[in-house]
User: Which sequence fits this backbone?
């Protein structure tokens, strides 16, 4: 009997692997991990207690409808429950959006470089990526993205602020772009870092979505809320899109522990705002110090900074690791460093200064 391999989808050929942030080496010189945009603070007050209580019910399936979390989100954002859908982090919801909208022969537009998962989940869906280069200032080129729309376009990702550059899109230019998008093309405002924005001209995507049925907003509990390890995110979208997301969700994908922790996090908003404020202050300090060293740093509105280093990217990342922090390099392009603990940021700044002197 001849041996043959099971037939797999051709779209999976050449799917790029998602590269997670490198962890700090156990027992090695690296003391701090600044490679994954994690929140350096522990869980918010009350969250651990809810999580421990939920852990006692691991023998039971979670609430598949995420009822408590959905009701809490509806109240928090003043939206109908029917306009909500949850998933395993915002990237999980993004993949559900592609399942609901795009397949072979369809096109998905996004800026590049942007979130590393976009090309992966687009290719898995069978759709074709249309990557529109960032401007020289690391911004979304929204005019070029609008020009790239064809009759095959089904979905457009707009990462605001953009990961990994940190740049944010202001209201006037975003609305001008949305006015050019056909009403049957879904625009996904990926706002994983929304809580860190301090530019008043950068709009809240939830306000944008209210009057635009073809706009969906992605949010996550992984960044500001510090629940990265629990994998819970959500979308706010008009009912047809939200309903499609609930249909494409993995059954019982969001654990009860994650649901309860997310509810408790939403109820600890005062503490959250304090922590985010501290990280934003550290962000300002780090950006100012880098610029004083002579680096060109985009105006980040996220919890990280970006340096375009080109061919010296991996060399810079190695220098940071030798100094005691691990950052996220994108070979041949640049490096992203999360705003972490003050001590970690200091080590990063020292490494950046030493490297700058060698240029």
Assistant:
């Amino acid at each position: 009997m001849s041996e043959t391999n099971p037939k797999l989808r051709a779209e999976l050929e050449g799917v790029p692997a998602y590269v997670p942030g490198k962890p700090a080496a156990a027992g090695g010189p690296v003391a701090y991990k600044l490679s994954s945009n994690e929140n350096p603070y522990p869980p918010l007050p009350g969250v651990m207690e809810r999580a421990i209580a939920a852990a006692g019910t691991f023998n039971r399936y979670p609430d598949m409808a995420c009822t408590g979390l959905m009701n809490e989100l509806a109240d928090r954002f003043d939206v109908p429950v029917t306009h909500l859908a949850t998933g395993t982090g915002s990237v999980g919801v993004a993949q559900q959006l592609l399942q609901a909208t795009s397949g072979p022969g369809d096109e998905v537009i996004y800026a590049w470089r942007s979130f590393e998962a976009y090309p992966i989940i687009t290719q898995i869906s069978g759709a074709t990526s249309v990557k529109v280069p960032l401007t020289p200032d690391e911004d979304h080129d929204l005019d070029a993205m609008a020009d790239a729309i064809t009759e095959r376009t089904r979905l457009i990702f707009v990462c605001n602020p953009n990961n990994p550059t940190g740049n944010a899109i202001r209201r006037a230019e975003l609305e001008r772009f949305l006015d050019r998008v056909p009403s049957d093309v879904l625009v996904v405002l990926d706002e994983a870092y929304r809580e860190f924005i301090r530019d008043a001209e950068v709009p809240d995507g939830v306000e944008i979505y209210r009057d635009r049925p073809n706009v969906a907003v992605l949010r996550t509990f992984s960044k500001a809320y510090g629940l990265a390890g629990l994998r819970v995110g959500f979308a706010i979208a008009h009912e047809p899109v939200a309903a499609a997301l609930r249909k494409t969700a993995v059954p019982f994908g969001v654990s009860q522990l994650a649901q309860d922790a997310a509810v408790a996090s939403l109820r600890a908003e005062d503490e959250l705002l304090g922590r985010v404020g501290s990280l934003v202050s550290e962000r300002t300090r780090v950006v100012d110090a880098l610029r004083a060293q002579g680096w060109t740093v985009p105006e980040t509105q996220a919890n990280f900074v970006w340096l375009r280093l080109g061919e010296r990217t991996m060399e810079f990342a190695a220098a940071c690791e030798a100094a005691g922090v691990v950052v996220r390099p994108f070979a041949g392009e640049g490096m992203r460093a999360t705003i972490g603990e003050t001590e970690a940021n200091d080590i990063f700044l020292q490494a950046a200064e030493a490297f700058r002197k060698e240029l």
About this structure: Residues 72 and 263 are 7 Å apart (CA to CA).
